[in-house]
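In the previous chapter we treated chains in isolation. Here, by contrast, the input contains two separate entities that must be folded as one system, with a combined length of 244 residues.
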Amino acid sequence: MSKKKIISNEQRESVIVRTISRIMIPFIQLFGLYVIIHGETSPGGGFQGGVIMGTSIILLAIVFDLEEAERRISRKSLTALMSFGLLIYSGIGVLDMLSGGKYLEYTKLPLPLPAHEISTLSMLGVEIGIGITVMAVIILLFFYMVGDQNAT
Amino acid sequence: MIRIFSIVSLILVGIVFIYVVDDMPDFGDPKNPTNNEIYERYVNKSFEETGAPNMVTAILASYRGYDTLGETTVIFTAGMAIILLFKRWKDE
């Protein structure tokens, strides 16, 4: 499977863009994690944080090339992550059903914590699931729509 | 002919919309239909019922968990559709 470069070599040689991106990408990912994990206490949540996490990988693929980005996170693992995030969400609902509540009734989980803290923990799990799904789908959209367009 | 018909129907629909705007509730009126008991329940009880200080996340992930599960499924389906459309299958 041969892939064409997204950007030509002369543009890719820009030292400033590459250096700044290399510095910024970890901070973008850290900010995405912060937005996901602080979803209950401040504005944010799984959808927004997942998009920020996906954007960091898309920036990597634009500034370097697609093979570099796919070496960091492959299409196969992205497909698995996409399903895994939805599985976390619906799995929390099934766990609630197994412990005697309704589907997605968080407070029935058998944990040694007060009810509202169990609810907060479950909501954090749900947000992480949403974040993983959104991140994987955003990156997959970019990989598939850019990757093979010139390769017949 | 079609153009004249569409312009006339646009004008008619526009007249209906402008006529209806007059019956809309005033902005910030306490008797608005949106200011019902659901709103009070969210404002007063959401912290003790869900334990999340952010009311938006409390509604999104706890009160309307089914809705958010559906949204996540929509995004998942978009990813599956992209794979089905753009993947280069072996026997091409």
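Chain A is about 70% helix and 0% strand. The first helix of chain A runs from residue 9 to 12. Compare these points with the single-chain example from earlier in the chapter.
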